[in-house]
Structure formats: structure tokens, C-alpha cells
């Protein structure tokens, strides 16, 4: 059956917004601009974090990981989506679909855990300031980030292999603009229960559990901030985590809507619009939020920019 599946299905047709040509022409310049801002903004965050010695701290190490993750995630599907917005042939190969699915799942899963790690880092920095350098050592930062990337990649490879080994019986039209795993599973003509169980367990481990951990961290952080005697001290403490809190709310709000809402047999345009919000707008806004809410990032950026102009 697997051999038949692979010979019959050599490519998929990504339906996307093909039924709405006017919307396609509107989305192309909009998504192109957002993708460009995403690349430039997140690359700038990584560059500043590396070039400025003052930002060689756990907080900016994880922020650099988040920026790299956003670049990787959007690059897995946005370039092909832009091509399809202007093309009548909206196809992707079977292998290409599997790779896109795996990398998208891995990047999304990694971001869920990375945001929880960043919340833990803020908790230690604010609630345990004297022991913070010891508790959040460079070795621990590398271990947490590396383990997160590897475990999420392994999880995503497993989910992708299980999904793509299912028989599709000649069904090729994916009602989505990417090889999103739930959209691909709707084409399967075999038993999808194993894949659905894996996805459900993954959704529980990567949505409610990290979110509960983040909420607990911020409850403890808030309690500590309220005990700070001076108003200036409270503002400074809150400013160090307000950007992260804004990113968490934006990211988890859209993800929970997309993956925890009741299933519908037919894909709706609203679902795809929210996917664009989750997949394109959020990575674009992350560097903007951190730049606007964090004076250290702004000062480091000005310093690096001034140094580059001076060298010229």
C-alpha cells in the first residue's frame, strides 16, 4: 500500500486562496513586505545580540534563538506561497510537502518551549537575582536551547512520517496554502487515529503545559515586582519582561485558536487568514516588540550601527 501511495501521489496541489484571485493579488505585496521585515528585523536582533558584548546574557541568547527560529519558520513556506500567489500551478512534490510539514511543525513546537524557557529565565532574573548567574549558567543555556531544538525536531519527524505513510488514494488537493498536517490528514483514506493521537498528545504538551508554566512564572514575577519599594524599580523590573509577555500573548492566542478549536470538514477562508496571522505577522512583530519595549536592544542597535558607519 505504501508503494502504491508513493507512485500514485507524486505531488500535491495547494489550494490556498486560488478561489479568490483578487485576494491573491492583495496578499502578494502584503506578505512579501511582511516577510522582508521578518528577515531584516530578526537578522538585526541576532546581529546585535552577537556583536554587542553587553547583550551576551541568557535573555538575549534565547532571544537570538527565537529570532533564528522565526526566520527558519517563515522561510519554510512563505517563498513558495509567494510563488503560488502569482502562479496558476500551485503544486508541491510529495517529498517537498513532507519536508515543509516537518520543518514547520518543528519550528512551531520549538517556539512553544522556547517561550517557556524565556519565562523561566525572567523568573530567575527577577525573583532570584543574587543566584541568577549561577542558576542560569552559559552551559545550562546551551543545554536548554539544544535540547529543545533536538526534541522538537524528533517529535516533528515522527509525526510527519506517520502522516505521510498513510494512503491517499489519489487525493491531491490540500485545502491550505502550505502542507499543514491537519489539512493533509483530511486527504488520507486510511485510519488516521494514530496520527491524531500523536498530534493531540503533542498539542497538550506544547500548548497548555508550557502556557501554564509561563503563567505561573509571571504570577511569581508580579508578586516579586509588587514588593519592590520604589516605583522606578518596579518599572525597570516590569520592562525587562513586558516584551516577552506581549510575544507570548500574540503567539499562544493565535496558536490556541488554530489548533484547539473544533474541527470542520471544509476549510474556511477565516482559518487561512488566521494561519497567515500566526505564521507571518507574529514573526514579523517579535523583533518590533522587543526593539520598542527594550532600551538595551535600542542602545545596542544604535551602537552597532554607529560603529559600522564609523568603520566605513
Q: What does this entry look like structurally?
A:
- Helix content is 77%, strand content 3%.
- It is mainly alpha-helical.
- It has a single domain, classed as Up-down Bundle (Rhopdopsin 7-helix transmembrane proteins), CATH 1.20.1070.
- Strands 2-1-3 form a three-stranded mixed β-sheet.
- It is globular and about 65 Å long.
- It comes from Lynx canadensis (Canada lynx).
- Its main location: membrane.
Given the helix and strand composition, which structural class is it? mainly alpha
Strand order of the largest sheet: 2-1-3
Q: Percent of residues in helical segments?
A: over 70%
CATH homology-level superfamily:
Rhodopsin 7-helix transmembrane proteins
Uncertain spans: 1-7
Q: What radius of gyration results from the CA coordinates?
A: 21 Å
In CATH, the topology is named Rhopdopsin 7-helix transmembrane proteins
Question: How far apart are the first and last residues' alpha carbons, in Å?
Answer: 63 Å
Strand-residue proportion: under 5%
The biggest sheet amounts to: 3 strands, mixed
**Total number of strands:** 3
Query: How does CATH name the architecture?
Result: Up-down Bundle
Subcellular location: Cell membrane
Function: Putative odorant or sperm cell receptor.
GO cellular component, one term: plasma membrane
Organism: Lynx canadensis (Canada lynx)
Amino acid at each position: 500500500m505504501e508503494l502504491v501511495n508513493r507512485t500514485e501521489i507524486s505531488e500535491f496541489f495547494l489550494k490556498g486562496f486560488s478561489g479568490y484571485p483578487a485576494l491573491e493579488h492583495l496578499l502578494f505585496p502584503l506578505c512579501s513586505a511582511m516577510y522582508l521585515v521578518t528577515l531584516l528585523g530578526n537578522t538585526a536582533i541576532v546581529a546585535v545580540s552577537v556583536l554587542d558584548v553587553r547583550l551576551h546574557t541568557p535573555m538575549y541568547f534565547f532571544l537570538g534563538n527565537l529570532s533564528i527560529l522565526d526566520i527558519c519558520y517563515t522561510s519554510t513556506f512563505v517563498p513558495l506561497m509567494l510563488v503560488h500567489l502569482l502562479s496558476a500551478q500551485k503544486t508541491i512534490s510529495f517529498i517537498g510537502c513532507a519536508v515543509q510539514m516537518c520543518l514547520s511543525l518543528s519550528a512551531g513546537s520549538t517556539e512553544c518551549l522556547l517561550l517557556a524557557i524565556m519565562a523561566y529565565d525572567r523568573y530567575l532574573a527577577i525573583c532570584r537575582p543574587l543566584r541568577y548567574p549561577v542558576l542560569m549558567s552559559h552551559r545550562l543555556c546551551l543545554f536548554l536551547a539544544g535540547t529543545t531544538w533536538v526534541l522538537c525536531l524528533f517529535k516533528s519527524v515522527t509525526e510527519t512520517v506517520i502522516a505521510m505513510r498513510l494512503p491517499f488514494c489519489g487525493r491531491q488537493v490540500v485545502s491550505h496554502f502550505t502542507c499543514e498536517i491537519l489539512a493533509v490528514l483530511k486527504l488520507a483514506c486510511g485510519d488516521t487515529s494514530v496520527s491524531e493521537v500523536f498530534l493531540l498528545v503533542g498539542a497538550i504538551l506544547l500548548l497548555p503545559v508550557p502556557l501554564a508554566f509561563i503563567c505561573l512564572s509571571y504570577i511569581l514575577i508580579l508578586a516579586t515586582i509588587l514588593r519592590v519599594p520604589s516605583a522606578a524599580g518596579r518599572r525597570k523590573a516590569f520592562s525587562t519582561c513586558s516584551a516577552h509577555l506581549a510575544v507570548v500573548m500574540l503567539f499562544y492566542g493565535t496558536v490556541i485558536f488554530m489548533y484547539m478549536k473544533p474541527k470542520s470538514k471544509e476549510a474556511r477562508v477565516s482559518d487561512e487568514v488566521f494561519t497567515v496571522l500566526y505564521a507571518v505577522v507574529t514573526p514579523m512583530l517579535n523583533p518590533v516588540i522587543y526593539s520598542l519595549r527594550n532600551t538595551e536592544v535600542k542602545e545596542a542597535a544604535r551602537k552597532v550601527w554607529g560603529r559600522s558607519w564609523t568603520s566605513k
